[in-house]
Amino acid sequence: MNPVIEKIGLQESENSFHFFKLEVNQFKPFWHYHPELELTLITEGHGTRFIGNSILPYTKNDLVLIGANLPHNYSSVHHQQDQQGAIVLQFPSHIFNSFKECELLHNLYQEAERGIHFIKPTIRTLKMLQNFESVPKTEQVAVLLQVLHQLYEHKDRKYLSSPSYFYQRVSAKSQGKIKTITTYILENLNKKLTVKEMAERTSMVEQSFCRWFKKAVGHSFVTFLNTSRIEQACMFLLTSDKPIQAIAYDCGFESLSHFNRTFKKLKGKSPREFRA
Fold first, then answer.
1. What residues have CB less than 8 Å from 266, skipping those under 6 apart?
2. Containing domain of residue 205, as a range?
3. 57 domain-assigned
4. CATH number, domain at 50?
5. How many degrees, rounded to 5, is the angle at CA 31 between CA 258 and CA 78?
6. Number of Cα atoms under 13 Å in the Cβ half of residue 156
7. What is the DSSP letter of 133?
8. Same domain, 151 and 186
9. Last residue of a domain, one of 130, 159, 188
10. To pair with 105 at 20 to 30 A between CA atoms, which of 42, 112, 192, 263?
């Protein structure tokens, strides 16, 4: 996707990496990219993460390494009750270049260009990230190196963005346009959204909008919309006792049959089977 570039500002700061914690009621849609790699650990909450053209759910202990300039976004359901929390480390790929022993890490950085989801991270890795803030500054560098080495050796991993996905920077005006339209879509999944409406919002004819959106996002508008809605529905199925029909309507589907067909196509099972 062609999002807004985020300036981490490490060159102007006294730090070689950026660490911060997020504790909020909602992760609001914010498509962005930056030249630094980013390691994100979800500490609480659930929702949908967008990495390149990957659209998948996240939940507690979700650990992802995002490569340089790879567009990404974490979005939670705006009316869910649980808190959202994350630990984030952003660092340049050259941070350990002075050490020849660390050259192997560049293989990890290269793989992260597609985004890497580390499935079932070790307790040791989780604890080091959770305690990172309490470690003295000089020791944090050593801890970061240990974490990256453990991730390098972690075999149970999944690449997120497809090999064919590519990202092309566009003008600031176009970046603002894609940010506006994707934010609008993700904040209004429960409403009827049409190609005609989206085209009007971007001041395009429908055919031009469809071409532009697919090139920018890596999905057609309909695929992006339906996938985002189904991921939201999954969260409702897992965390509420709402009837399936009510969930279908809450997620913007106009009929239960359409919801069931789309859910089965994307998830390989019916909503009822998924909930069970």
1. 226, 227, 230
2. 172-275
3. yes
4. 2.60.120.10
5. 55
6. 6
7. G
8. no
9. 159
10. 42
Burial environment of residue 228 by CB neighbours within 10 A (0 to 12, 13 to 18, 19 or more): buried
Same domain membership, residue 142 and residue 65: yes
CA–chain centroid gap for 101, Å, is: 31
Question: Which of 133, 159, 185 is a domain's end point?
Answer: 159
Distances, alpha carbon 38 to alpha carbons 7, 33, 98, 120, 179, in Å: 13, 10, 20, 19, 20
Phi, psi of 245 (to 5 degrees): -65, -40
Residues 183 and 236 in one domain: yes
DSSP 28-56: ----EE-SSEEEEEEEE--EEEEETTEEE
Q: Between the CA of residue 183 and those of 14, 47, 71, 187, 251, what are the distances in Å? A: 33, 15, 14, 6, 16
The verdict on 148 and 234 lying in the same domain is: no
pLDDT of residue 175 exceeding 70, the answer is no
Q: For the purposes of burial, counting CB atoms within 10 Å of the CB of 124, is it exposed (0-12), middle (13-18) or buried (19 or more)?
A: exposed
Query: What are the tokens at 269?
Result: 């099972």
Global pTM? 0.86
Tokens representing 6 are 């985020």
In this structure, are 155 and 36 located in the same domain? yes
Three-state DSSP at 64 gives strand
Stretch 150-161: mean pLDDT, rounded? 96
